[in-house]
Amino acid sequence: MRAAVLRAYNEDLSIEERPMPECPEDGVVLKVLACGVCRSDWHGWVGEHPRVKPGQIGGHEYCGEVVEAGAGATYKVGDRLIAPFILACGTCPSCQSGHQNTCPNQRLPGFVEPGAFAEYLAVPFDHNLAHLPDSLSPTLAAGLGCRVTTAWHALTGRAALQPSEWLAVHGTGGIGLSTLLLGRAMGARVIVVDIVEEKLAHAKALGAEAAVNAAGGDTAGRIKELTGGGAHVSVEALGIPETTNASIECLRPLGRHVQVGMPVGHTARMEINMSAVYLGNLALYGTRGMPSWKYPSLLSLIETGQVDMSPLIAREIKLSEAGRELAAFNGPTPPGVAVITDFLN
């Protein structure tokens, strides 16, 4: 099978012929129909993700069709499935309490095991997967990937966002746009932050009530002015000190900050304004991924037309173009996300 392989950090991915994956006893082999290209993949590509080493096949935002099923598999040949990027064991205390995204035995295709920048993918613990609804294209399903699922859990499982609350979104990449669209569907008033005017204009066209260009400085102060005292909920979608502090500082008293952006490598430890947390009686939440049992609520929102996630997808690309998309994350990216749909070129 064809696969895009990381051979050296910060260099184009190598398109290679690799053996077909072996089918797990408790899982399936998927023919990959589509796979998103995510900033989390970029962290591995530049060498800052501690688990991603040369030789890795990246890609964790996938959907596919079952071509082989193990003896203990949940699904059968021909099923079309979507996946969370965290595959939980299902039996540990975390899983049994409904917090599968914190499973200590989790499996991570694309980071530790071969991922979906390839024609075929082995998926263990297939009880985490969900059927791809007929109304969702594989391209859109892959675009949901980790960004939409993570944003959904951040807003519902962590911040408990309420209608009419102000939601600030710092960064308008895939996570940021997902948070905007879902927040609007939940009845929130959304304000977006970025340094690229084109992306701010795009976000406003998708329903953001206000936009702040962080290049102008005093982001928190401008948000407090626009919202009449500060956001109730603020989501940080980049994982860097500047936006993390702006997210915390833009909150009104008793506000909730949700750390969605991945602090890794040189940003794994950062200096933040704990005085603002103390004085404002703020709550800080971390979040990563989504428990698989939340798929029905998210998919129902999309299938019933309560939210249209299609504006998230900006371009469909070839497998050979995945490295170019990763390199684009080195600077400000254009609006929307890229999804690999052609695995033969």
From TrEMBL:
Entry cofactors? Zn(2+)
Highest taxon in the source lineage:
Bacteria
Enoyl reductase (ER) domain location is: 8-340
**Record PROSITE patterns:** ADH_ZINC
Annotated GO MF terms: oxidoreductase activity, acting on the CH-OH group of donors, NAD or NADP as acceptor; zinc ion binding
Family indicated by similarity: Belongs to the zinc-containing alcohol dehydrogenase family.
What protein does this entry describe?
A: Alcohol dehydrogenase
